[in-house]
Fold these 3 entries.
Entry 1:
Amino acid sequence: YVGKKTSVTLIDNIHDLKVKDFHSGPVVVPETMTVYDAICFMFAEDVGTLFVVDKNELLTGVLSRKDLLRTSIGTQDLNKIPVHIIMTRMPNISYCEKSDSLVEAANKLIEREVDSLPVVELQEGGLKIVGRLTKTTITRAFLFLTQHDE
Ligand code: ADP
């Protein structure tokens, strides 16, 4: 019975989708970057979230559009404030790994009510950023399923 069979394979397929097959590239900034420069960089890179790294390129924070907006309406000189002052910091960051399923990642996006997760590799001393998993990633995977539901 074709209708039922199709929906079963679709569900199976959903759970086979992995972060590593859909995530986009990492967009990172140093902790010392000013808020002003971070805003320019966010526009230039056309992303909604920047990941912040320390000298060793390890994840220390996340900067969202609203973090930058909030600072912009409350502060005189955006050229004087480094992003590490206003970012959301480790260990309060939700992240995922390449081997995770997209369903797990989607769950974290919804539970934490955030737009994106850093894709990381666990390293001695911290997390190395290897990509970005966003609501757009999930939408792209959703469309992929409509083209491959066999
Ligand atoms: P926006 O606020 O621009 O709509 P988000 O909803 O993603 O974007 O971010 C909401 C808040 O959560 C911000 O303060 C941001 O720093 C923080 N945040 C964003 N992504 C994460 C994440 N993966 N883990 C923890 N906090 C995050």
Note: The chain has one domain: 2-147.
Entry 2:
Amino acid sequence: MSTSPKQSDELGTGARSDAQDSLKHPHQGLQGAFGISVVGIGAFVPERCITNDDIATLVETSDEWITSRTGISTRHVVSGDESVADLAIAAAKDALASAGMEGSEIELIIVASSTPDTIYPAVACQVQTEIGAVNAAGFDMALACSGFVYAMVIAQQFLKTGMHKTALVIGADTHSRYTNWHDRNTCILFGDGAGAAILRAEAGAEDNILASDLHIDGAKGMELTLFTQAENCPLVAPKTPVNNFVYMNGREVFKFAVGVVPKSIQHVLARANMNIEDVDHVVLHQANIRIMQAMSEKLNIPEERLIVNLQRFGNTSAASIPIALNEAVLAGRVKPGELLVMCGFGAGLAWGTTILRWTAVDQRLPQTLKTEMQQKLSTMKPLAAASC
Ligand code: UT7
């Protein structure tokens, strides 16, 4: 990154610190130590809701089986021409309202989606134009149910280097379009939706994303797959046609999740010099209530610390963590100063965990709750643990 001598002087004296200034010079880079915080959260799900009884009209199953084996009662699905970008844009606007920000303040947009309607333009480009993020860079990434946590950690790296000051991270998926609605092993699980978070860098501030842990294990990749359809050039041998529906070996994925996720959470806690008792809320990917219960047993997490909403939304893949967190924030359950662990896991196979301190006062809350959150923020103590 090159800066003019004048800009270097300004950077050296720390003069260039406000949002306006960084907007004037969007991608020129800032220097120094930056602390990263989440300043807004948002979500959106399509209107159409499908019940377990509705699914029982398509395959041999029952509300009793689905509820007892998964914890899911309903899920929302896209209809007509509703797109992943539509969901992502609505979630982004909700997150901007939560942060009390304008789209023009966003400098980086990362969309985690494995089911985009278009490979290009990227969903991030569609979001960028709709929210008026005129100075933003952006891109999409695909890592299924781990996508949101990965995107958060990627955004954190961009912000920590000073390349951007404000990032919008979105998880958005429409697996209902890639579900074989005659396969009872998978069609009971997925719902559509989008969730978004806004991250901001502050020079000299504490870093509220304390530690993270990201992994992939491609050797087990074929346990959970979604192939894309495409054909070879007509002058060469044709490609074997693929079935572009979700395939999942449910038992193997279940075992994998219960095996790796508790270790990943313990690893992140150790890196942040914390214990599980220090954590106020755990937001796991909303895949199956039995997976969440098994993990909380392994780690001794009291159930009331788990944020769970898969009963109503099913498994929304990259969107599940921010949709769950958004609900908890709107309910006034998550307060400034509290510690949150988020963990995504699934296709890849992949998994990612991050621990963060909540510092946002959500602008969508009623005034009484906003005042309470503001007070909590003003009395928040500095973090004792080292961040990494
Ligand atoms: O987001 C990505 C990450 N994904 C996950 O984490 C999903 C992980 N896996 C799971 O959540 C569970 O494995 C499932 C919910 C997918 C399946 O639950 P399960 O307890 O592992 O069931 P199972 O596959 O072992 O099947 C048990 C029985 C079978 O019958 P038999 O062979 O015992 O006679 C299945 O045929 O249940 C039968 N079955 C069903 N019965 C009624 C499977 N699906 C259904 C169904 N309704 N929908």
Note: Residues 61, 65-66, 69-70, 145, 184-185, 188, 250-251, 253-254, 257, 287-288, 291, 315, 346 surround oxa(dethia)-CoA (CB under 6 Å).
Entry 3:
Amino acid sequence: MTQAYQTGIIPEASSDALFITFNLVRDRIAQAKHALASSTDIVHDIAQQFPDAALYASIGLNHAIWPLFDNTKKPQGLAPFPHFKNQQIEVNETAGELVFHIRSMRRDVSYQLANALFQAFDKSLELVEEVSCFKYLDNRDLTGFVDGTENPEGEKRKQVALVGAEDPDFEGGSYLNLMRFVHDLDKWEHQDLKSQEDIYGRTKYSNEEYAASQKSPHAHTKRTSLKDSNGQSLEILRHSMPFASLTEKGLMFASYSKTPNIFNQMLESMVKGDEQGHYDHLMRFTTAHTGNAFFIPATRWFTTLLD
Ligand code: HEM
């Protein structure tokens, strides 16, 4: 039976999201453990208080702090964020040991939950980064293209995102990958429409996929549509959302998967490219400022923390 999974993973896109990363203060682990043990109840209580907000959240830990909370067992795939580079691009792990991914239809309610969780941790967390994201038009990235179209649908979302019987101690958990991309929109907007569409392998306004034969080997959707050795599509569940100030604009990329290997393979395909070195040309217009890999345990794990 699938364990109860955290609410931030499966539901369809929200209109508002907060991605908040922290480091753990090492001499306050006992405090952090108490807070983690009560965190899924805090999420539940505030979600119940504001049913119209459709408030969802995921709380997760990275490889560096996992053993400080649970030294008996570890999720099979929990590992550092990968390092890939070509002549132009480099992606790497950056700071951030614990994450809150909070999303809802109401910014005020997202704020309330973030604040309540942060207070529960008292001084056991040090803020690394807080990114406030919004739904832009009809779920478009700030480059103007609809993002999330090819996400899995219905029951398939759970099959793609949740750990199953292959790791029985961690069934119902999920691997979350985060990357904060900052776009060079001046450079992007100097490209004509056809060049922009070729870079994605999709049309901009009508959001149609190019025929496979029309896609450049550099197209983003070419580089990220991967298959396993049996010809089955490798999939992740994306919850990326834009963020923007007047001076910095970009995308908080977020994906959930039952194994981090699929995300890692996609990122490698984007950065290193195929055998001929055809890398993802979307990366000429955006820069990854962060890279984080977390495990989002099923809710049961939190309740066993104080046993
Ligand atoms: C597809 C945007 C980074 C994985 C797409 C699409 C857009 C998009 C507009 C087409 C519509 C859709 O199916 O969602 C972006 C932007 C990124 C970014 C703006 C960064 C600035 C990434 C990264 C990964 C990724 C880092 C994974 C490592 C995918 C996948 C698809 C996709 C799997 C679907 C491909 C298909 O089956 O057609 N992305 N993306 N994306 N992206 Fe990204």
Note: The chain has a mean pLDDT of 97.
